[in-house]
Design a protein that fits this description.
The protein has about 600 residues and is mostly helical. A hairpin with a 2-residue loop joins strand 1 and strand 2. The radius of gyration is 38 Å and the shape is elongated.
Length: about 600
């Protein structure tokens, strides 16, 4: 192994040693090379050599010769921290207690070491939370330092302590005025080459302070009042044209929304997020919509002012931005803007990616159900969605739409004419075809009448209607469920037309030998109605669609539909077979008994 290898290579060679003697030889050669470089005063490789010595020391080999020129303390700290982070919990507790006993964080003077000590304390508090009280006094005193690195470490440490201990949180709430003054100094300070990032004075420290203020001001009126003026000052004086400024403003918005801030300040925060929506950076637009999604329920009117910008984000090329814009647009739908916003959502549905269609259709259905201005508008919206993306709708869409059509009595004629047009235009959308078949079967007489005040009526004949249903039955695109709807609709029409009953019988009898068991069973049962109980078919079909409930059949009913002794209910078949229980006769008896 060459003496100049990297730490990773040295670790690989040591781990690959087959015997302890081979491992010892590798370490001795590497230590000899490190000694030689120390004697040559090669400062360029000193940090790499110290890292190697740290690893050697962790393996249990002597590395005391590396403690040179202010490095001993650093090695001890690095060793203890590394041990606390990577070994077992009990050993880590011992190392943490040793380090706390030494009181290094109270005695370190060099700023670099103080910053490292504060960050080391953060890791130890995360590892052993009950030791956090040991660092509370030191963390409080570090806030008086002038060095930004030390302040950064102190703020991170205080944040960690406050998140893990409610008592510590109450103690540090007294430091809110000091943190406010520190933040004001950063906001109002002039140009400083040492800390300036894109025109913002130390944005990293500003973000950390704002995050700590958010924790301290949460659910506390006094702390929130103390920082309201500061947050307004940061929101108005920070330039958002650069990423650094946007980061500070975003943290300011989160703080405003999380504390008990004034209403005007919350509106200002929402306006900042609205400006973020106009940013060219897609990441900024994404986090802006994510934040607006969280606050839309509490500040709905403030978010509504940016509805146009949010809708424009639906046209973004990025899929993540589109999804966030869709979720936020659906959350903004209300009874006031349902018509205008639904037009935008339907337009988006026609061109949205396939992976978003199911979510879009579900959101549109929910919004239409909650805020529909009229039943006709509700039906038209759902039919539009089925026509555009019928293959991506939920399974319950068909029964829900059928229920809606059933309750809209005055729109039966309008609906059946519109669905018939859709059926003869395209039969590829299964959900739309199922609803159309059901509606034709229920209200076919209104369609054949050719009169409709709500829309231009379609002049159709009985043959035209049967041709449309037969096309659905014979199409290779029709699913078994769709064929079941079409066959049932055809059977229902036998009670609504007069000249084509024989054709309906012929269509139904064909499917008595269908390969699909459910469709075959349904056809056989319908054929039985035609052959044995033709005098009852019209009554039964009326019972299926009657809104007033089932009506009693005559006393000449066959034995299959015999009344119980009390004469109020029909005798049901006794069987454990689900196929018989779900058959036509069993369903008819259950319907009559309801």
């Amino acid at each position: 192994m060459s003496p100049s290898v990297r730490l990773q290579e040295m670790i690989r060679v040591i781990r690959g040693a087959r015997t302890q003697g081979e491992e010892r030889g590798v370490i001795q050669r590497e230590c000899a090379a490190i000694r030689a470089q120390f004697r040559q005063a090669d400062n360029g490789t000193r940090s790499h050599n110290l890292a190697k010595l740290l690893y050697v020391h962790m393996l249990g080999y002597p590395a005391h010769f590396g403690q040179v020129v202010n490095s001993a303390l650093k090695i001890v700290i690095m060793y203890l921290v590394s041990t606390a982070l990577f070994i077992t919990s009990q050993s880590s507790r011992n190392c943490v207690q040793i380090l706390a006993t030494w009181g290094m964080f109270m005695n370190l003077i060099v700023m670099t070491l103080t910053f490292q000590a504060a960050l080391c304390a953060v890791h130890m508090v995360r590892k052993v939370p009950e030791l956090g009280e040991l660092f509370t006094p030191a963390a409080r005193s570090l806030l008086s330092e002038k060095n930004h690195g030390v302040l950064h470490g102190a703020v991170v440490l205080i944040t960690e302590l406050c998140e893990r201990n409610p008592d510590t949180l109450e103690q540090f709430r007294k430091a809110v005025p000091e943190l406010v003054l520190m933040m004001k100094g950063l906001v109002m300070s002039g140009y400083s080459p040492e800390h300036n990032v894109a025109g913002i004075s130390d944005p990293f420290l500003q973000v950390r302070i704002l995050r700590l203020l958010r924790i301290l001001g949460r659910n506390n009126d006094t702390a929130s009042d103390a920082m309201n003026d500061l947050l307004a000052q940061v929101a108005t004086n920070t330039d958002s044209s650069k990423t650094a400024g946007s980061a500070v403003l975003y943290e300011t918005v989160l703080t405003v929304m999380d504390i008990k801030s004034e209403s005007g300040l919350r509106v200002l925060a929402v306006n900042i997020l609205g400006r973020f929506l106009l940013n060219n950076d897609r990441n900024i637009r994404y986090i802006s919509m994510t934040s607006l999604q969280k606050i839309v329920q509490t500040d709905h009117n403030a978010v509504q002012r940016h509805r146009g910008t949010i809708v424009d984000c639906l046209k973004d090329q990025d899929a993540s931005v589109k999804r966030r814009a869709l979720e936020l647009s659906l959350a903004l739908v209300s009874a006031v803007n349902i018509r205008s916003l639904m037009k935008e959502l339907l337009l988006f549905l026609s061109s949205c990616p396939p992976e978003l269609r199911a979510h879009t259709t579900s959101g549109i259905f929910n919004a239409a159900e909650r805020y529909a201005p009229s039943q006709r508008w509700h039906i038209d919206t759902i039919l539009h969605v089925l026509t555009t993306a019928g293959g991506d709708v939920r399974d319950e869409t068909v029964p829900n739409l059928i229920q809606l059509i059933t309750t809209a009595t005055e729109l039966h004629c309008y609906t059946v004419h519109k669905l018939y047009r859709a059926l003869i235009t395209d039969i590829s959308v299964q959900s739309l075809v199922q609803v159309a078949c059901w509606c034709i079967g229920e209200y076919g007489d209104l369609l054949l009448r050719g009169e409709c005040e709500e829309t231009e009526p379609v002049q159709v004949t009985e043959d035209d209607v049967l041709d449309a249903l037969e096309t659905v039955l014979q199409s290779h695109m029709s699913s078994p469920a769709t064929r079941g709807f079409a066959l049932t609709a055809t059977m229902k029409l036998s009670t609504r037309i007069t000249h084509n009953v024989d054709r309906i019988r012929s269509i139904v009898s064909i499917y008595g030998s269908c390969i699909d068991v459910e469709l075959q069973q349904r056809a056989v049962e319908y054929n039985a109605l035609f052959k044995k109980y033709d005098h009852m078919s019209q009554s039964y079909m009326h019972i299926v669609v009657s809104e007033e409930g089932p009506k009693k059949w005559s006393d000449s009913s066959p034995r299959l539909f015999s009344l119980l002794p009390h004469g109020k209910r029909y005798r049901s078949a006794k069987s454990r077979s689900k196929r018989l229980l779900n058959s036509f006769y069993s369903q008819a008896i259950r319907l009559l008994n309801t």
